[in-house]
Amino acid sequence: MPVEHYENFPVASFLLPRRLVPAVEAIYAFARSADDIADEGDASAPERLAELDRYGRELDAIAAGATPGDPLFARLAGVVRAYRLPLGPMHDLLSAFRQDVATSRYPDYATLLDYCRRSANPVGRLMLALYGATEERNLRDADAICTALQLINFWQDVAIDLAKGRIYLPLEDLARHGIGEDELAAGPATPAWRALMRFEVERARALMLSGTPLALRLPGRIGWELRLMVQGGLRILEAIERAEYDVFRRRPTLAAADWLVVGWRALRM
User: What is the pLDDT of residues 139-159, one digit of tens each?
Assistant: First the structure.
């Protein structure tokens, strides 16, 4: 599976200890393939949900001490046992992917945060479990970072998601700024749109900054990994601002020069 196909996993990072690479790859394969079941191909909604339910049964088999026949889950079972990983976050991911099949709009910020709690936060929690760093304050800060990264990805990909029939911007925020779905589909670059995106960018930035103590608290490679992830997310927000919030015609990405800035800022944290 191409690593860049699933933004939330640092599978290819040179900072990831080699001993953890097989474990992270096994978790990644589970999450990526489940996400693809929800999003890719031509299967019907009932077929997608049935396959995700099968994934849930495979997790239940692992919890019962069995070794599934499916190679993907047999590999995952070995990792779960070796690192005593909780299966709750994996079930949460499946819950979010089931929601992707049926839900394309989010009425308010609280509903969107609940989705992020299941679609993004499990990744951070599983990574902390691999490192044996699951203290409560670490989990809290990891949740903030992961949710912020998910929100940043949503703001970066408004146009891409809209083409798929999805809107992750809370509908209450659109209504508050006087933006309807028809106007959104036209790719607005209006003052109202800029005001909306300015609000969403600042909200994501504040959430990210609230979790940054984790990147300074954790030692070694995981700390540096987190610093780069935090600074990369913040840099994307800056790119959205530099584009004057026009993510329809100028999708913000990080170029080589941006990564130099990200690295320098990570060093100075």
Answer: 999 999 999 999 999 999 999
What is the chain's mean pLDDT, rounded? 91
DSSP result, 188-225: --SHHHHHHHHHHHHHHHHHHHHHTHHHHHS-HHHHHH
Report the SS3 class of residue 259.
helix
d(CA 227, CA 215): 5
> Does pTM surpass 0.85?
yes
Give the closest residue to 115 by CA, choosing from 131, 134, 99, 91. Answer: 99
Tens of pLDDT, residue by residue over 134-143, are: 999 999 999 9
pLDDT of residue 79: 96
Distance CA 180, CA 83 (A): 48
Nearest-5° Cα angle at 119, 13 to 168: 110
Segment 16-40, tens digit of pLDDT: 788 888 999 999 999 999 999 998 8
- Distance of alpha carbon 110 from alpha carbon 193, whole angstroms: 21
Q: How far apart are CA 193 and CA 201, in angstroms?
A: 12
| Phi, psi for residue 128 in degrees, rounded to 5 | -65, -35
Would you say the C-alpha torsion 262, 263, 264, 269 has a positive or negative sign?
positive
